[in-house]
């Protein structure tokens, strides 16, 4: 179904674990060349990369802290030096940083949340742009930018997560501008917006808190990272979604219906 993903060059930010790692494995299984990223290279990354080549694509890990504009630039440069270009960019790096109520937000917390979620998405996309344009011009197929939004981008986020929710709403919004002004470059822009997925993101929740959250989800449970991955394959594949751009696909078990 996603046969056209074979040999596509896919850079996935924040993919050493959780949703990003599941997405990386799904692209590798489709035969894509995959770049993984995180601030730190996990001890078992060599083994992970080894299993990812089975469908013919190559996989490599690039350490970079995308809160820094310079490291956004160097990540893109390193990926292009390794794979020769970028066909698909997945802006997945993101997170809460912490839970801080309005009355306690200071400059440090503001910068940390906005740098991780907004700056990383903005700057990696900015530095990838000429490579995505070149991909489209050379292949005659659309390149893709797939960003990760959030249910919090609609609802405003839970306790202490106002900046995180606002940062994800920024991602939901900025895409409209990119569609309006960069579709001519041969790039499609789409968002996968997760609900509640079972990753380290929810490490602060005990069993009682998890049960309360699950009770508010029509499907009655957290999502598994591998259940998010096919939405990314869909948006990256021109065979599957060649006329789809500027959309948000909510993968949330019915937890929120915009
Ligand atoms: P996760 O398990 O915490 O994984 C986060 C990944 O991002 C890790 O690979 C982490 O590696 C990397 N990362 C963190 N800070 C980074 C930085 N400054 N630069 C580069 N990489 C960085 O998170 P997840 O739950 O899979 O979340 C993935 C995306 O989905 C995020 O954008 C998140 O906001 C979004 N989301 C998640 C949920 C959910 O319920 N899980 C819901 C809605 C949206 P290092 O720690 O080594 O840097």
Quick take:
The chain has helices at residues 18-29, 45-52, 69-83, 107-139, 152-155, 162-182, 207-215, 225-236, 238-241; strands at 9-12, 33-38, 59-63, 88-91, 143-148, 187-194, 247-251. It has 258 residues and is α/β, with parallel strands linked by helices.
Structure characterization notes:
- This protein is α/β, with parallel strands linked by helices and 258 residues long.
- It has a single domain (3-251), classed as NAD(P)-binding Rossmann-like Domain (Rossmann fold, 3-Layer(aba) Sandwich).
- It contains nine helices and seven strands.
- Strands 3-2-1-4-5-6-7 form a seven-stranded parallel beta sheet, with helices on both faces.
- β4, α4 (107-139) and β5 (143-148) form a beta-alpha-beta unit.
- α1 (18-29) packs across α8.
- It is globular, with a radius of gyration of 17 Å.
- It starts with 8 loop residues before the first strand and ends in a 7-residue tail after the last strand.
- The model has no long low-confidence stretch (mean pLDDT 97).
- The chain binds NADP nicotinamide-adenine-dinucleotide phosphate.
- NADP nicotinamide-adenine-dinucleotide phosphate binds at residues 13-20, 37-40, 65-67, 92-95, 116, 148, 150-151, 194, 196-197, 199-201.
